């Protein structure tokens, strides 16, 4: 199965798929571009590990239609940035649609329209399902409509990795997108009629709760939370969806033939997560630079993690009190790690702050990699354009992991696709 990896980062999707079945999944093309940086570190790490695939280091919008057409990919994967996905008609062509801000998602749609892969696996932050704040769910509904207009169905689930045995409390929404003429889609059609009563009669309950990709790989309790479920029929016109969408999108759902059925669900996993303590390197493996002895830094962490009320003034001159609840003075080693951000390792509230054997320290790059189920030292080296191999700074290694995904989640998705 030939794979195109977009927004590839340092290869999280590829690692997950190859861990599922290295012989089945062949990532032949990748694209990684960081527009805000002169140095293309993530691409160089990817290129160091995977020099034999065609790795493209330009803005995805600069990949030509002809180039996409030359890729006979069976599957497209990628974790694309979360932006505003509102749309408007093109002034040059009244039938055309232009994304105002979420342009990178529209590049996925462009690649899908040209390549016509059988499947896509996509990942994003879970707040996408409630964006934007003034029209909740609109952005995701636009995406569903765009895929529907290309002849695809979409199944989605918000997954907290720690609730399925991993070492990080990281919530992300995953999409499984499949073309409606695939054998997989036809089998679903044989099991469930596609007339107007399909959703009203909850005929997809068995698929969502028991037999679907996410149900089999990430089990859920066999009933909705507080009976939160919704049926919605999407207009064909994306602009109409953008302007008028008033539906709700819960953490689990399926869209087929322009209709979606969404349910609020709870995990049903018997295993225990990996704890932060279990992923730590032994004390003699941790360099001194990660230990904190400076009293000023220790006091700063104490302040940042404590409760506070701060008087602030808004742009229009309004004075208000900003309140922030307290958190534990250091991270609990008996729990999974918190969600890593790109600022991991700096002195801020979101950084993991540890107390191990009476000593305070930060997590190491290797421990950050373990929180995302990457191999140890995956991000330690990169290959420059001239072939030179150099070491990567700790700051960039933490940045990579803050942007990455939990590769074990992709592995489990890949294992389901192996059986199709």
Low-confidence blocks of residues? 92-97
What's the shape? globular
Integer average pLDDT: 92
Please state roughly what percent of the residues sit in beta strands, choosing from under 5%, 5-15%, 15-25%, 25-35%, 35-45% or over 45%: 15-25%
The helix content, as a percent range, equals 25-40%
How many beta strands in the DSSP annotation?
Answer: 18
Strands of the widest sheet, in order across it, are 3-2-1-4-7-9-8-11-12-10
CATH class of the domain at 2-271 and 407-418: Alpha Beta
Biggest sheet architecture: 10 strands, mixed
Instruction: Give me the number of helical elements.
Output: 15
- Calculate the terminal CA-CA distance, rounded to whole Å: 11 Å
Question: Which fold does the CATH topology of the domain at 2-271 and 407-418 refer to?
Answer: Rossmann fold
The CATH architecture of the domain at 2-271 and 407-418 comes to 3-Layer(aba) Sandwich
CATH evolutionary superfamily of the domain at 2-271 and 407-418 = Vaccinia Virus protein VP39
Gyration radius, rounded: 22 Å
Class by helix and strand content?
alpha+beta
Molecular structure report:
Helices cover 30% and strands 22% of the residues. It contains 15 helices and 18 strands. It has a 10-stranded mixed sheet, sandwiched between helices. Strands 5-6 form a two-stranded antiparallel sheet. β1 (2-6), α1 and β2 (26-31) form a beta-alpha-beta unit. α1 crosses α15 (407-418), α5 (138-149) runs antiparallel to α10 (238-244) and α13 (365-371) runs parallel beside α14.
